[in-house]
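[Help] Beginner question about ligand-bound structures

Sorry if this is basic. My supervisor gave me a protein sequence and a SMILES string for NAP and asked me to "get the holo structure". I don't really know what that means in practice or what format the answer should be in. Inputs are pasted below exactly as I got them.
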Amino acid sequence: MIKHLADCTVLQNGVKMPWIGLGVWRVDDGAQVVHAVKTAIQHGYRSIDTAMIYKNEEGVGQAIAEAGVPREELFITTKVWNSDQGYDTTLAAFDESLKKLGLDYLDLYLIHWPGTDKYADTWKALEKLYKDGKVRAIGVCNFHKHHLEELMKTAEVKPMVNQIELHPLLSQKELLTYCKQNNIQVEAWSPLMQGNLDHPVLAKLAQKYEKTPAQIVLRWHLQNGVVIIPKSVKEHRIMENAALFDFALSDEDMGRINDLNQNQRFGPNPDEFFLV
Ligand SMILES: NC(=O)c1ccc[n+]([C@@H]2O[C@H](COP(=O)([O-])OP(=O)(O)OC[C@H]3O[C@@H](n4cnc5c(N)ncnc54)[C@H](OP(=O)(O)O)[C@@H]3O)[C@@H](O)[C@H]2O)c1
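Answer (accepted):
No worries, everyone starts somewhere. Holo just means with the ligand present. The predicted complex, written as structure tokens, is below.
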């Protein structure tokens, strides 16, 4: 089990990916994102999750440059947005992201949403970037099992990561099992239910373990073998969300959290979120 903030899962190609990263959706470019990313790195985070559509890749890049940690110790993820799906457009979008981030390679590049009919071509572009050594690992976001099955019909390289909405109200049990069987690392987005942590079961567990509801939920993810990227712009929460190693949830309490599932999404269902 993970014991340290820098501990990693090993992806199917041998690349190490930290179990914990900082998410930066809805963090403003400029001072806010620079401060959040630098604060996280100072407190030991080594993984940052951004996306072209978050419009803060430049600030993330600035923070990386100023943080004083060697590039190779960091794990940087960004994503190709819906309107850039397709082979040539994805290659161009990748170059633009890399330029904004001020980097010469990425650690993980993801398809942001499946859409309907373009993701096979988009994936071909990701495979090229991977084979050319411009990105160390490639994957997808928001892929249901049927999207993964379809993609694997034509893929030469299997997706290494599937980043999906996952939290106690949406436990995604079947998809998690399918990904584990296929050696696809699951990464949870909105791991903290976008801050909606006010739940009597979580409050009770927080009291029992002398932790916060956020820490209970994040520890539940880790014990389920899921990578987490909680977002915060506040230093005390950035620290809180990484202080998860001095307690363990019992099997019974893991079960109590599993039982909270209501298949409730805070974001769209990938089957209903089409490319724009
Ligand atoms: N691939 C995709 O389609 C996709 C979609 C959505 C998100 N993501 C990624 O996943 C990351 C995380 O998801 P998310 O940002 O939607 O939501 P989240 O991490 O579940 O929750 C973030 C919210 O919770 C608050 N918060 C953070 N730590 C807290 C704590 N310890 N106690 C109480 N509240 C806390 C934050 O506020 P403060 O900032 O004020 O602390 C913010 O409002 C994103 O930032 C993004 O990188 C990916």
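A couple of things worth pointing out: Residues 14-198+225-233 form a domain with the TIM Barrel fold (CATH 3.20.20.100). The chain is about 40% helix and 15% strand. Feel free to follow up in the thread.
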